[in-house]
Write a sequence for this structure.
């Protein structure tokens, strides 16, 4: 198959994160010839070394990367499959070539645990110009498209999580200092923090400071700008600021942590594959629609009520993140139950075919009908 994937970067890194993973999975897992169109190469470059932000066209990891501008190259026409990520709409000139080629057209939708997704997954939408767009929904059940997951991921994760020395060596490559590594070796809880600006970060640091088990906090540079001041208080977690890293290293970072605070879609799925407790900050939407999506996921996520209460509070900063919510979730009994739930959640989802395999098979079936 020859495929075009279109990506508009809206949420800084999540959109391109999903598209880049999908492009690599289709190219390396199914042998597809993939062309990835991206409108924001600067954001792309922060999570993928080797990307040149000013290049109109470049090739990396066997994938043709095109800078998507207002005047696309008319020589780049539609091929077998066109995947638009999150309803980003291919440019009109490219649509003209699609009307001639009639490729399999996929709208890769946002991830949702809502029940209505199952009835809409795979449905076609006939356009007046003769083109047909199919909706493909990532999800958590067999009636959806599944989640992106690379072969061998569990084995690599388990090997790193089984070796404290390997974890320390990896964290050193990210610039984590010896004082933090020493506290970590002595049993401190390792917490990663990747959040939106609305997250109640100061309240979290205050609660971690009061926890009987010490904490170390790992956060990307530029995220939660008030974090340094909050962590300067006596008894606060030791803080390490980390550079933005390539996706495989981001996975390893999550694997090294006991608790991962993540945001958006891509980092949320990667935290699930870490098989460790996670707190998801869902992308905010008008009218608090995102909270309905959060509740749909929590109905499927087997964590104890204390953990679910913490996740809800993290997503409603206007009500305040009570120290009691953090303390209850981290209390030994609740924490052990949460850790076990995270392992079960990982295992249950990993038993399903991943999104790239499902999408490739779906497109193959569409090709047979052309």
């Amino acid at each position: 198959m020859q495929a075009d994937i279109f990506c508009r970067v809206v949420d800084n890194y999540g959109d391109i994160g999903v598209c880049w993973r999908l492009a690599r999975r289709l190219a390396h897992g199914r042998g597809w010839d993939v062309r990835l169109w991206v409108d924001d190469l600067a954001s792309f470059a922060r999570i993928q070394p080797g990307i040149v932000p000013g290049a109109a066209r470049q090739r990396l990891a066997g994938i043709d990367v095109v800078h998507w501008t207002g005047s696309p190259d008319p020589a780049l026409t539609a091929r077998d499959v066109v995947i638009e990520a999150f309803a980003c709409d291919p440019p009109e000139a490219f649509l003209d070539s699609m009307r001639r080629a009639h490729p399999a057209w996929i709208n890769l939708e946002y991830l949702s645990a809502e029940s209505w997704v199952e009835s809409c997954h795979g449905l076609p939408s006939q356009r007046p110009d003769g083109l047909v767009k199919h909706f493909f929904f990532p999800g958590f059940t067999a009636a959806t498209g599944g989640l992106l997951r690379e072969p061998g991921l569990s084995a690599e994760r388990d090997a790193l999580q089984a070796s404290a020395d390997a974890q320390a060596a990896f964290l050193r490559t990210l610039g984590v200092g010896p004082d933090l590594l020493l506290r970590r070796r002595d049993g401190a809880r390792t917490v990663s923090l990747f959040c939106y600006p609305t997250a109640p970060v100061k309240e979290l640091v205050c609660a971690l400071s009061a926890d009987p088990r010490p904490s170390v906090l790992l956060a990307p540079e530029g995220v939660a700008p008030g974090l340094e001041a909050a962590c300067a208080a006596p008894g606060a977690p030791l803080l390490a600021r980390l550079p933005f890293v390539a996706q495989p290293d981001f996975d390893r970072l999550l694997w090294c942590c006991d608790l991962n605070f993540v945001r958006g879609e891509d980092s949320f799925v990667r935290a699930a594959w870490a098989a460790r407790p996670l707190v998801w900050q869902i992308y905010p939407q008008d009218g608090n629609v995102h909270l309905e999506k959060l509740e749909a996921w929590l109905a499927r996520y087997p964590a104890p009520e204390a953990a679910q209460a913490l996740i809800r509070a993290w997503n409603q900063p206007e009500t305040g993140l009570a120290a009691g919510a953090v303390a209850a979730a981290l209390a030994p009994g609740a924490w052990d139950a949460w850790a076990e739930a995270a392992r079960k959640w990982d295992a249950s989802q990993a038993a399903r075919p991943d999104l790239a395999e499902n999408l490739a098979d779906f497109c193959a079936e569409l090709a047979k009908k052309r």
